[in-house]
Amino acid sequence: MSVAGTRSALFSFGSYNRWRGSAVVMLMLLAAVTSPAAQAPPSPADGVARAYREGRYDEVQGALKNATDPRSVTLKARAAVALGRYAEAEKMLTPLASSAPTSDAALELGLLQFELGRRAEARTTLIRLADTLKPRTAAEYLRFGRASGALAELAQEAPERKAAFEDAKTALIEAGQLAPKDAEVEVAFGQIFLDANNAPEAAKSFQAALELDGDHPVALVGFGSVARDRNPPAAREAVAHALKINPNYESAHLLTADMALDDRRRQDAKDSIARALKVNPDSVAARSLDVTIAFLEGRQDDYARGIKEILTLRPNYGEVYRVVGDHAARNYRFDEAAQLVKQAIALDPENTRANADLGLHLLRTGDEVAGRQALERSFSRNEYDDVTFNLLDLLDRLDKFDVVRDGNIVMKFDPLEAAVMKEQAVPFAREALDTLAKRWNLEIKGPILIEMFPKHDDFAVRNLGLPGMIGALGACFGRVVTLDSPKARPPGEYNWQPTLWHELAHVVTLQLSNNRVPRWLTEGISVWEERRGRPEWGKEMEVTFARAMDQGKVIKLSVLNEGFSDPEMISLAYHQASLVVEHLVAIYGEASLTKLLQAYGRGLETDAAIKEAFNTTLDEIQKGFDAKLERDYRSLITALKPPTVKTPPSLEQLRTLASDNPGNFPVQMSLGKALADAGDVPAAIAAFEKAAALVPSATGDDNPNKMIARLALKEKNNARAITALEDVLKVDHADVEAARTLIPLVAGSPPARIENANQRLVDVDPFEASSHAVLGRLAMQRKDAPAAVKAFRTVLAINPPDRAASLVDLGEAYLLAKRPTDAKVQALAALELAPSYERAQDLLLNVVDGSSR
Q1: Kind and range of the H or E element at 474?
Q2: Angle 250-262/319-330 helices, nearest 10 degrees?
Q3: Whole-number Cα distances in Å, 437 to 102, 398, 444, 579
Q4: Is beta strand 448-453 parallel, antiparallel or unpaired with respect to 409-413?
Q5: 224: which of 20, 90, 239, 396 fits an S-S bond (Cβ 3.0–4.6 Å)?
Q6: How many angstroms separate the CA atoms of 688 and 682, rounded?
Q7: Cα–Cα distances in Å, from 518 out to 191, 551, 783?
Q8: CA–CA separation, 826 vs 828, rounded Å?
Q9: CA angle 327, 330, 333 (to 5 degrees)
Q10: pLDDT (tens digit, 9 = 90+) per residue, 344-391?
């Protein structure tokens, strides 16, 4: 991915883990809930409610061993469930549910039956509760809402699910109005939205719960589950807090394991799974993650044995395949993910979430037809799933996109952009893919589907099902590439070309590694390939990285992968990973880098893969890399470090500082600005030239050459302005304003200089007709017919004001290309617009004369 990560916005929890945590609700017995609840007779459960919340389940059972009142028995049952003693819990709950079918015991029994895969029994128990209970108090509305939420999950038809979901929402709204300060209501809301795969609403509810009770373990884990893909550090912080409150909270351990697997910290994940299984040895959710690791590590016998054990415990637990598929997708193995989820659906056709997952996985393989079918099946049963709704809505728009094919490349464009972008993006993609395939000696397995979106949120939805992904520009799923089109962002903010080159480099690394490459390596290679693609690409982070290095923020190689899941570190991680790749190639050669990818492709993990490819260790590579950074960046760090100045210096003081610190970039920049303000332009330019020599990679407003260009233009020194602007574009390739300023200045220059300036502009803004026209005329001068045809076709696609002249331009290019029939078509079209247009008449005569010879 370009700039930011793209991982599936899904969660790896089974029904039990989604529902069981909120059972704390009636254990708290808060007086604020309602007066009837407050008037309930005292119970031994009151004394151990906190012990339950803190995960001291054996203590709860011991304290209530001889208690027989309903509240105590229900609490004992909940503790038994937390420990995996399901039969014991059911034995305690069944008599109470039978005698009091609207009680907490009945709710807990129904949820337990649901967890155990006995859906028919669960429906019977929960329907009896919902049909019989006439809620009046907050506690009763909450109980009714939770039962209805579970019934929505158990619904067999869409109308039934919708009715149950609406009943749940209505009941919880009533509970919230009666008990506005009860966090349990917001937790219950979060759970039903999480079950519906509506992450935005779930996040709001869990955050609201935490505002009321910041130590609520269920709210913390719920928030962590929705933050997992969007803000992993916040998710880790939330789940760590939950485990401080309740060290035995199974769902917290499993979410910790999920996030460790996202970072390829598999031993850490195994440790967290072991902690969950210590609490609940029969947890199918924990066992599902255990077999997931076996799958990821290629331990097929362990995987098969683990699946068999899970299905022995829970014969229709197709969720295990969905969970394994989710993690396969998180590791770029989308074809396998789709097959795994199909197994989940075969075993459990009522798993709506599995159909939603299948749709997303299939879209990532490029099978949009089958992906839509799976999503429609899911949506027919769960219309509250934001991800599925968004994807189906987007697919409707994608159906209207123009499709262009070039060999093993299939590109889709918005109809309003297609005429221009097919001229620009298709040949560029062809160049990039062919160049990369040749460099890596790889026969690309296609077709490669590339989709460009003029609306960034459509790009985000295509990847994750939700709008957002603010920092991302492109994404690659192996055979599918998505990216913002040039119109998705204002000109100057974004250059689509290096983004597409970057994503197509992922195609290579994913295919060479059988989709098993770790993220640090595939992103590092893609950024490195950007720099190899064009000399001006991939330099944006040089200064930022040097400053980070000076602050001790360079990421250790052993945890570099984790940097990609930290919004504060991700940009640094991209650049650093490219430097690691650069170092590996410099020391061991490109062939060894290919061996590293192939080693990952055979299932080796980092230590073993590095040993095989380079015959060394990660620690040794770290030493060499540290030395490289010191060599390459120490002088830049020194130049960037500002001197200590207590008060803003005067111009004379700045002169002295600059004289005493000739190698200091901030001082030279400050002196240049002060001199410019004082009107001493030659001296200011001299100071900025020194700054540019010290930090040639400075970008944006810190680029000294931008200052030089402004001053030179002010002095009407066009020659100096041209040089400065060309230097700006050597590092700020997306600076469209610099390119636009440069073009009129080079009007009388040699053709190569004119072409370079105009090409820089259309590379970033391909909808600039005047520059395409200039490029077309230059191509005609050098008799380059294909380039002229491409340029003039693009001009016509932009709908220029003088369409007749542009038609003749294209006709003349066709004539040069020895395509007289096409030239005649353009001449006639021009004459239709302007019957007396002499250029069009001459073109038509030339066509006729050529045909008669």
Answers
A1: strand 474-476
A2: 30
A3: 66, 28, 7, 22
A4: parallel
A5: 239
A6: 10
A7: 33, 27, 47
A8: 5
A9: 85
A10: 999 999 899 999 999 999 999 999 999 999 999 999 988 889 999 999
CA-CA distance, 162 to 397, in Å (whole number)?
26
**DSSP string for 54-84:** TT-HHHHHHHTTT--SHHHHHHHHHHHHHTT
From the list 561, 218, 196, the residue with the least C-alpha distance to 382 is 196
What 8-state DSSP symbol labels residue 649? P
What residue spans of 332-385 are helical by DSSP H? 334-347, 352-365, 368-381
* Cα separation, 353 vs 13, whole angstroms: 11
- Cα separation, 467 vs 783, in Å, equals 47
pTM above 0.85, yes or no: yes
Distance CA 166, CA 134 (A): 16
Cα(117)–Cα(109) distance, rounded to whole angstroms? 12
SS3 406: strand
Q: Residue 408 carries which side chain, given as an amino acid letter?
A: N
- The label of the residue with tokens 């924990």 reads 286
C-alpha to C-alpha distance for 576 and 414, rounded to whole angstroms: 35
In the chain, which residues have pLDDT < 50?
3-39
> Across-strand partners of 411?
404, 450
Please name which of 390, 403, 376, 361 lies closest in space to residue 460, comparing C-alpha atoms: 390
Sequence-ordered alpha helix ranges (H) in 645-715? 651-660, 665-677, 681-694, 704-714
Peptide bond preceding 820 in cis form (omega within 30 of 0): no
- Identify the helix (H) or strand (E) that includes residue 412: strand 409-413
- For residues 125 and 134, is the Cβ–Cβ distance under 8 A? no
3-state secondary structure of 281: coil
pLDDT in tens, 120-139: 999 999 999 999 999 999 99
- Contact predicate 684/711, CB 8 Å: yes
